[in-house]
Design goal:
Keywords: ATP-binding, DNA damage, DNA recombination, DNA repair, DNA-binding, Helicase, Hydrolase, Isomerase, Metal-binding, Nucleotide-binding, Zinc. The protein has 613 residues and is α/β, with parallel strands linked by helices. It has 4 domains: 201 residues, 3-Layer(aba) Sandwich (Rossmann fold), CATH 3.40.50.300; 202 residues, P-loop containing nucleotide triphosphate hydrolases (Rossmann fold, 3-Layer(aba) Sandwich), CATH 3.40.50.300; 106 residues, Arc Repressor Mutant, subunit A; 73 residues, Orthogonal Bundle (DNA polymerase, domain 1), CATH 1.10.150.80. The chain is built from 26 helices and 17 strands. A 7-stranded parallel beta sheet has the order 3-4-2-5-6-1-7, sandwiched between helices. The protein has a 6-stranded parallel beta sheet with strand order 8-13-12-9-11-10, with helices on both faces. The protein has a two-stranded antiparallel sheet with strand order 14-17. The protein is globular and about 80 Å long. The two termini are 50 Å apart. Bound molecules: adenosine-5'-diphosphate and magnesium ion. The site of magnesium ion (MG) has 4 residues, from helix 3. Magnesium ion (MG) binds next to helix 3.
């Protein structure tokens, strides 16, 4: 197939198989690059539509496209979505039996698939390698490519095998890499480690305008969850917890209150994980309580909230997890329930994780060092009273407006509280303790603790010992964080970070400069009305009927509803009210195959709705 006609055909493929008339931001240059034989790197946020950038070229290129992807759940999901759209695809990973594995390879060799998903550790096995050398591989697409980098939040040594695999091929295919992690180091590592050849680099904006961001500091997290679920009934969402134990607890308590909840973490049997994930995907249990083991590649398009019961260990993870909400572009809420204990839990996880991994001690320490820095940035997010969206965008190297109007900082009502006296006491305590201690110890001194370590250092003899006895620990933490954010204190990047005064602190201590802290009015007093009801659906009654129809179709085929058609597609249907196949084809997300499979049923439903009303 010539280059010219490929370029023209890409729009036809976009419509026919994917049901879209337009590319989203960033997709077209990546598709073009791959089609013209040039390597490509796509850095786009979760939900932006990275898959299409390699799936579409796969259909136009001769031979097979290999997609390297880290998680089994992801592969299964993507392969069923492709199959639904009429695209021949399969996956190869450890969930297959040996005979299934061989059958898949035989089919692939016979040209049965255009797209083959492969787990990285399979690439260099003899059987796979001999298959790969015997057929035409036109494109190797590396999904979640940040896994090659130690700077990324999810380094996987098995990803380093990808390069060896590519080198072992008789002729080098086009190589494309995709990730949602935008930091410069990760980007450089991807290009260097995968030996990409002057790739087309596309970085799209990281902003997801439909996501609402909020940080709450509730006294009781579980109550905050219940309050949220009550205010947002009948919605599907994920509640992320830091540990398996918390997942169990939250899930059990919600179930006992009759919420349709299920759970997911690495400690469950493979069978239970599969079952629970399906219950979630099929909306039998629309609320999923999970550790971060859940969700990479979960492309459930009607997730309308992501709650974090605990603060994650970095902004990358947070944005990725939160980004699983609102993937089809509908408004969605991302709420983080912060508690001071979260910082301590994460510090513990950083210091004690990864010891049995394949990293040498020096590398392991480097990785930990970077994780400490990232944790700090995450903690500041929770304490920031400035625009949360801007904070995230700046973290990823984008500018962002100082006021987004769609986060708890921008929308919340603040009071400015004068904290000059407390600030003076805290700063003076840090100084008298010799600027050698971290937040926890300074809080202990201020509160007048007599713990062993404190006494051993002689800190109980300081004049500032017990000087803020009456102030509770969480508030002291808030005060100290406010001082850090406003540049009166800084935290060192060491393994045991300590507080130091900045020059600015002198003004408060010696010149009486006033200090203020923004405090959000307590959210607990007045629960906000949800502002993300499926807004903008033009015929809600029809929408419900179409959803019901979709449910019946999906159940009959044992598929998740969103794989049949997304909520965005149903919404568009209610807007366009198609009554002919040609009109049906114009609905966003409807391609030729979906028209053939489901067109008649949906058209009938719409026609009878129109007749009745
Ligand atoms: P990512 O991998 O970047 O997180 P996905 O590839 O899973 O995102 O795509 C997210 C959603 O966006 C999917 O539901 C997909 O169908 C939809 N999508 C992708 N491209 C387009 C497009 N050009 N127009 C409309 N929707 C799209
Ligand atoms: Mg993806």
């Amino acid at each position: 197939m010539g280059g010219e006609s490929q370029m023209m055909e890409k729009y036809q493929v976009l419509e026919k198989y994917f049901g879209y008339t337009e590319f989203r931001e960033g997709q077209e240059p990546l598709v073009d690059s791959i089609l013209s034989g040039r390597d490509a790197v796509g850095i786009m946020p979760t939900g932006a539509g990275k898959s299409l950038c390699f799936q579409l070229p796969a259909l136009l290129l001769g031979g097979v496209t290999l997609v390297v992807s880290p998680l089994i759940s992801l592969m299964k999901d993507q392969v069923s979505a492709l199959t639904q759209a009429g695209i021949p695809a399969a996956y190869i990973n450890s969930s297959l039996t040996l005979s299934q594995f061989r059958r898949a390879l035989d089919n692939a060799r016979a040209g049965a698939y255009k797209i083959l998903y492969v787990a990285p550790e399979r690439l260099l096995t003899d059987e796979f390698l001999s298959f790969a050398c015997s057929c035409e591989i036109s494109l190797v697409s590396v999904d979640e490519a940040h896994c090659v980098s130690q700077w990324g939040q999810d380094f996987r040594p098995s990803y380093l095998k990808i390069l060896d695999f590519i080198r072992a091929l008789p002729s080098r295919p086009v190589v494309a890499a995709f990730t949602a992690t935008a930091t410069a180091q990760v980007r450089e590592d991807i290009v260097r480690i995968l030996e990409l050849r002057s790739p087309t680099l596309v970085t799209t904006g990281f902003d997801r305008k439909n996501l609402y961001f909020e940080v709450q500091k509730p006294r009781n997290k579980f109550e905050a969850v219940v309050r949220f679920l009550t205010a947002n009934p009948n919605q599907s969402g994920i509640i992320y917890c830091a540990t398996r134990k918390t997942v169990e607890e939250v899930c059990e308590r919600l179930c006992s209150l009759r919420y349709p909840a299920t759970r997911y973490h690495a400690g469950l049997s493979a069978e239970e994980r599969r079952q629970n994930q399906e219950d979630f995907l099929y909306d039998r249990c629309p609320v999923m309580i999970a550790t971060n083991a859940f969700g990479m590649g979960i492309d459930k398009s009607n997730v309308s909230f992501v709650l974090h019961y605990n603060m994650p260990k970095n902004i990358e993870s947070y944005y990725q997890e939160a980004g699983r909400a609102g993937r089809d572009g509908s408004p969605a809420q991302c709420i983080l329930l912060y508690g001071g204990q979260d910082v301590i839990t994460n510090q513990f996880l950083i210091e004690h994780a990864g010891e049995n991994e394949e990293l040498d001690p020096e590398t392991a320490e480097q990785v930990r060092e970077r994780e400490r820095i990232r944790l700090k940035a995450m903690t500041f997010y929770c304490h920031s009273s400035d625009c949360l969206r801007q904070y995230i965008l700046r973290y990823f190297g984008e500018q962002g407006e100082p006021f987004c109007g769609n986060c708890s900082s921008c929308n919340g009502e603040f009071e400015l509280e004068d904290i000059t006296i407390e600030a003076q006491k805290i700063l003076s305590c840090v100084k008298r303790a010799g600027e050698r201690f971290g937040v926890k110890m300074i809080i202990d001194v201020l509160r007048g603790s007599e713990n062993e370590r404190l006494v051993w250092f002689g800190l109980n003899r300081l004049t500032t010992h017990g000087i803020l006895k009456e102030v509770k620990e969480p508030r002291l933490r808030d005060l100290i964080h406010a001082l850090i954010l406003q540049g009166y204190l800084r935290v060192t990047d060491d393994q045991y970070p300590v507080l130091k005064l900045t020059r600015k602190a002198g003004k408060v201590l010696f010149q009486g400069e006033p200090v203020q802290m923004k405090v959000v009015e307590r959210q607990e007093k007045k629960p906000k009305k949800a502002k993300t009801q499926p807004a903008g659906v033009e015929h809600p009654a029809l929408f419900e009927r179409l959803k019901q129809l979709r449910h019946e179709i999906a159940s009959a085929q044992n598929l998740p509803a969103y794989i049949v058609l997304t909520n965005a597609a149903l919404t568009d249907m209610c807007k366009r009210l198609p009554t002919t196949p040609a009109e049906f084809l114009e609905v966003s997300g409807v391609g030729q195959v979906k028209l053939e499979r489901y067109g008649e049923q949906f058209l009938n439903e719409i026609r009878s709705y129109l007749e009745e009303t």
